[in-house]
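Hi support team,

I'm opening this ticket because the web form for multi-chain structure prediction keeps timing out on my end. I have pasted the exact lines I submitted so you can reproduce it. The total is 900 residues across two entries, so I didn't expect it to be a heavy job. Is there a limit I'm missing, or should I split the entries? Thanks in advance, R.K.
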Amino acid sequence: MPRYTFRLNGRETSVDSWDPAQPLLYALRGPLGLHGPKFGCGLGQCGACTVIVDRTATRSCTLPVSRAAGRDITTLEGLGTPEQPDAVQAAFIAEQAAQCGYCTNGMVMAAKALLARTPKPTVEQIKQALDGNLCRCGTHTRIVRAVQRAGQV
Amino acid sequence: MQTIELTRRDLLKAGGALVVSFAFGGVPRRAAAQAGAPGGAADRPLDAGEVDGLLAIHADGSVTIYTSKVDVGTGVRIAFAQMAAEELGVPPSRVSVIEGDTATCPDQGGTGGSTGLVRGGTEIRAAAATARRALLQLGANRLNRPAADLTIADGEVRPRAGGAGVGIGTLIGDRRFALKVDRNAPLTPPSQHAAIGKPLLRPDVPAKCTGRHVYVQDFTLPGMLHGRIVRPPSIGATLVSVDEGSLRGIPDVRVVRVKDFLAVVSRDEWAAVRAATALEATWNQRESLPGHEGLDRLSRSAPLDRDQEIVNKGDARGAARGAAKMLSATYFWPFQSHASLGPSCAVADVRADGTATVWSASQGTHGLRGNLAKVFGIPPEKLRVVFLDGSGSYGTNGGDHVAADALLLSKTIGQPVRVQWMRHEEHGWDPKGPQQLLDVRAALDASGRIVSWETEMWVPNAAPGARALLSADAAGIQQEHGTGSGAITQNGDPPYAVDNVRVVAHLIKDTPLQLSNLRAPGKIANVFAVESLADELAVAAGEDAVEFRRKRLADPRALDVIARTASAFKWDTRTSPNPRAKQGPSTSLGTSNLLVGRGIAYMRYKQTENYVAMAMEVAVNPSSGQIQVRRVACAHDCGLIVNPDGLRNQVEGCIVQTLSRALHEEVTFDRSRVTSVDWTSYPILRFPEAPAVEVILIDRPNEPLVGAGEAATAPVAAALANAVFDATGVRLRTVPFTAARVKKALA
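Hello R.K., no limit was hit. The queue was backed up. Here is the completed structure from your submission:
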C-alpha cells in the first residue's frame, strides 16, 4: 500500500492508504486517531473538517491524502489541550462559544488562520473569514466575540 | 463567581460499555456503572422516584447524578450540577453527571419540549433536597445534636453555631439512602442560593475546543467495522438486484443485504464510503410524493382524519359580523430539516450471547431502547443504549434511524458496527418538521378592541405509535408507523384580550415525508401567523405596535418583557410602515437604496410557560430582495434562572437558528425523493448575515423554572416579517423569506 508522509502537529508522520484519492480527513480520524476534525458534509461546504495546511485553512474532507504528502498539517489537537489551550481555544472557552461544538473545530482553525494573516481583525473581517464555516446551533455571535477576544491577546 | 476547573472525561470500561461522566473539576468520580451484562440491572434502583436512582454520594464526598435527560449542546449538564449542589451543600465542581445510559440512569423521559430542567432538573433537585434532610439526620446522630441545629456547607454537616462537622461522604459514602424522593422536601430559599443563579462555565467546552471531547462520531470499539447504507433512489423503492462486481478495486468490503436494506461494511471507513457510492444496484422506483410545489394548496384540499377544536371561547364567527374592521390572511410554513451539522452516527455491538449495546446521541435513549428492542426482537433488559454527545439535533434528527442501521448490521454480521450517515442522508432522510398552513381572521370594533379571532390550521395528524425505522421498513420487519411531530397546535390563539376566540386544527391524514419533533414544534409557525396578524391589527387601529400589544395585555410579566425589549431596542413610538424607511447605500448589500424598518413580536410559550418579546431591525434591498437583520433585542422570562450564561447561549441560539429557518430553509422534493440534500440546496444562515443580538434575562427566583431550549424561537419569524413590513409596506406570509421571494413580493 502506498505510504504518504507529512508533518502533523509538528511531527513527521506517515500513513498508508490504498487510495491516493482518500480524503485526508479519513486518515486523520482513522489510523491517526485525531478526532478534532469532524466529518460534516464531505463536500467542502461546511468547514467542520478544517485543518491548517501550510498556514492555510483547508477542508480535509476534500484534500486527497496524496496531495497532503510533504505538507505541514496542523489539527485542533495540535494547538493546545484542555489544560493548556492556545490563545484561540482559550478565547472560545472564555466566551463559551459553543453549543453542541461539532462546528467548533472548523471555527477555531479558520480563526487561527485568519489571525495569522490579520492579527486584529474587525467584526466584518471575522464574519467574512468564517463565511464558509456553518454553525447550526446559532452560536455565531459568541464565535465572533471569541475571535475578537483572541485578536486582542 | 466560581470558576470551574477544566473538565476531565472519565472513561471507564464496564460490562463492555464505555461510560462517559463529566466531572466539574476536583477529583473526578468514576462512574459507578454496573459490571454485569449490558442491559442488566444496576446496583442502584433505576427509579426516578428513589433518591438512589438519581444520585449517589461517594466516600470522598463527591456526587454523581444519573439522568435520562441529556445535554445536546444546551448546557443542562452544568445546570443539573448546580441544582444538586445547591441542596447538598457541595460546590458544583464536586458533582458529576451521567446522562442517558439506560443501564445506569432512571427514565425521566426523553429530552425534548424544554423539559431538561423542568422535569429532569427539578426531580434531581428534589432528590438532593430529600438527601439533604437525611444527611442532616445522620449528622445529628453522629454529632449528637438536634438536626435543627445543623446545616450543610462545603460538603460537611456542621453546627450552625460553628464547631466541628462531619463530611457527607463519611455519613453516607457509597451507601444507599433507600428513600423515596419527597417532592415537597424543603428547598434552599433563593436568598441563600450559592450555586443556582451563577454563570458557571460548562464542563464540556474546553474538551470541545481542543478536540478531546468524545462524540458518538468519535467512538470506536475493538474489531469494529464501518458501515454505510445504500439508500434507495426513491422513497419506498424496492431492491431488484445488486452487482457486487461494481466494487472491484475497493479492498476489504462486504455487501450486506436484508430484503431492500442494502449496506456495505469495511474495517476501513473510506472503503465503506467509496463502496456505498460505487455499488451498482437496480431498484424498482416509486413515485409516491406530491412534490413540494404548491404544498400549501395541497394541504387545504388534503383528506383529513378529523378536525380538532383547540380553543373555543364565545362566538368568534358571530362577533366578527358587523365589526368595524375585519382582517384575514393565510400563512405557510414549509417542511424543514433538523439539518444537523454532523450527520447522525451510532455504534452497535450485538453479541452472540444475545445482549446488545448501542451508543447513540439520541435525545431519548430509553425510548429508543424500547423501540429497538420491540422492532429487532431483543429483550429490553438485554439491550443497553448509551448516550454520547452528538452534533446538535434540535429534536429527533437521523439519530434513531442510524441506531437502527447499526443495530441491524451488527445483528446480521455479528460484529460491532459504526454507521455514520453521509450528508445527503441527513438532509434527505432525517424525519422532517411538518408543513403548516394557517388561515387567520380577526376583527376590531370601532374602539379598537379585538372582538373576534379565528385560527384554522391544516397540519398532519399524529397517528399513534413509534416512528418507523428506515432500516426495519427496508428489511421487511413489522413495526409501528406513528406520525407524531410534537405539540404542533399550541400558540394558535393570541395572547391578548379577545372575547371570542376559536382555533381549529384540520388534521391531515397522510404526510408525504416522515415527521418528527423539530425545535419548538409547530409553535414558530403558529406565532408567526398570530403575531403577524396582530401587527396588521395594530396598523388597522392606527396604533404603534408596542402600544397595541401593551394595551391588550394585563399580565405584569408579559408587560415587563415587552417594556424591557422596547427599552433595550430604543423603540420609537409610531405607526408602521416606517415613514423614513429609505436609507443610503450599504457595502454588504450592494449599492442600491435600502429600506429600513423594525418589528416586534410577543408570545407566552404554550400560553403557560416563558414570556418572550423580541424586536428586530432589518434593512431590505428592494433590487435583490435580500433581507439583512441588523440587530435583535429580546427580553426573556423563564422564571428561576439556574445558569444565566447557559440560558443566554440558548436564547441567542434560538434566535439565530430561527432566523435561518425563516430566511432560508425549505425542504424540496419531487415525486420520488427529497432534493434538498446538501448545504447548497438547503442553505442555512451564514456568518455575514448574523445580526447583533441583545438578550435581556429576567430572573424570577421565586417562580418555577420553565425551561429555555425552545421559547425564544417562537416570536422570531413574526418579528422579522413585521420588520420587513415596516421597511417595505409588504407583508411576507410564506416562509422562507428568500431573496427571490422578497424581490417578487416587492415588485
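A quick check on our side: Residues 3-78 of chain A form a domain with the Ubiquitin-like (UB roll) fold (CATH 3.10.20.30). Let us know if the file doesn't open in your viewer.
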